[in-house]
Amino acid sequence: MSENSFLADRFEAERPGLRAVAYRMLGSLAEAEDAVQETWFKLSRTDVSDVKNLGAWLTTVVGRTCLDMLRSRTSRREDPLPEQDGAVRLPDPVVTAAARVDPEREVLIADSVGIALMIVLETLSPDERLAFVLHDMFDVPFDDIAAALGRTAVSTRQLASRARRRVQDAAPAADTDNARKRDVVDAFLTASRGGDFEALLTVLHPDVIARSDGGTLVPSILRHGAGDVASQAITFARYAANARLVLVNGSPGVVSFTGDRPLSVMSFTIRDGRITGLDILTDPDRLAALGLTA
Questions:
Q1: Which of 29, 111, 141, 215 could form a disulfide with 92 if both were Cys (CB 3.0 to 4.6 A apart)?
Q2: What element of type H or E holds 18?
Q3: In sequence order, what are the residues at sequence separation of 6 or more whose Cβ sits closer than 8 angstroms to the Cβ of residue 197?
Q4: How confident is the model at residue 1 (pLDDT cuts 50, 70, 90)?
């Protein structure tokens, strides 16, 4: 076997993990694929004969690639932060069938990386995001992260600590039992379809927040409070010809269709048996890119 073939095989073995790093860093499935491909280009042009741990080396390289992409994105101000200036920008959801998760996608969304957490990651600075993702999610040593950031290990540790506090404050622990969460989502769907306002108030937390990302063609919507969210849920249910229970980032969610066209992907944050957050992607372009079928 040639050296190039050997490296290609090693890289393919690491690809799922690299995609997982890139998705957490970028919140975009397409950009994550671009970052992984760029990492392959760097590997193919680099002498790694002295690299003792190729997996760790690749993880650091893909992290640095994502860092450059985030810094470029910030300088161009292409993507607003969630709820900035009235805009709502949700990360790409990873949608799978409720009965089974594809092994590669299971790696992509492991460690309970739900949409709510991804939204919080979007609010971190690029350097904070790299330090938190690589260290807290993938156990990369601070010395290696510091080299990627061009910082000292001490300052990198401080970055990760600051990011960790922000994540814990903004995304407190949610329910983890998928069977119970599915019951809550079922109750929400039943009440929405039936126009049962009181039943919706029972399943929604009084301070629930609903965010809807419609992209450039459909206005974004941000609603606070159970009454406002319940009214919107009943209105929206009339337009959804059918809704399917799925897993969104490994947690029970809903895809709604009108005919064969996906209308929305809904992700739920559930705490103590009540919905505290509802994140809805309605951007037709991004929905089309997910390849969802009724």
A1: 29
A2: helix 3-26
A3: 191, 230, 231, 234
A4: low
274-281, strands of its sheet edge to edge: 95-97, 242-248, 251-258, 261-271, 274-281, 204-213, 221-224
d(CA 40, CA 57): 12
Q: Can you read off the two tokens belonging to residue 276?
A: 């505290």
| pLDDT tens readout for residues 128-164 | 999 999 999 999 999 999 999 999 999 999 999 999 9
Please write the tens of the pLDDT for every residue from 200-241. 999 999 999 999 999 887 778 889 999 999 999 998 877 666
Task: Return d(Cα 66, Cα 33) in angstroms, integer.
Answer: 11
State both tokens at 229: 């969210």
Q: Distance (Å, rounded) from C-alpha 123 to C-alpha 89? A: 11
Round to whole Å and give the CA distance between 152 and 165: 20
Question: Two tokens at 18?
Answer: 């690299």
Rounded-to-integer distance, Cα 17 and Cα 27, Å: 15
- Nearest-angstrom CA–CA distance, 276 and 269: 6
Is 178-289 in the same CATH topology as 3-92+116-170?
no
Torsion of CA 266, 271, 273, 279, to 10 degrees: -10
Domain ranges of the chain: 3-92+116-170, 178-289
The pair of three-digit structure tokens given for residue 116, joined into one six-digit string:
């709510």
pLDDT (0 to 100) of residue 109: 57
Which residues are 212's β-sheet partners?
221, 280
List for the chain the helix, strand, coil content (%; round to 5): 55, 15, 30
Please determine, for residue 195, whether its predicted confidence score (pLDDT) is greater than 50: yes
pTM of the complete model beyond 0.85: yes
Instruction: Provide the CATH number for the domain formed by 3-92+116-170 in this structure.
Output: 1.20.140.160
- How confident is residue 182, by pLDDT bands cut at 50, 70 and 90? very high
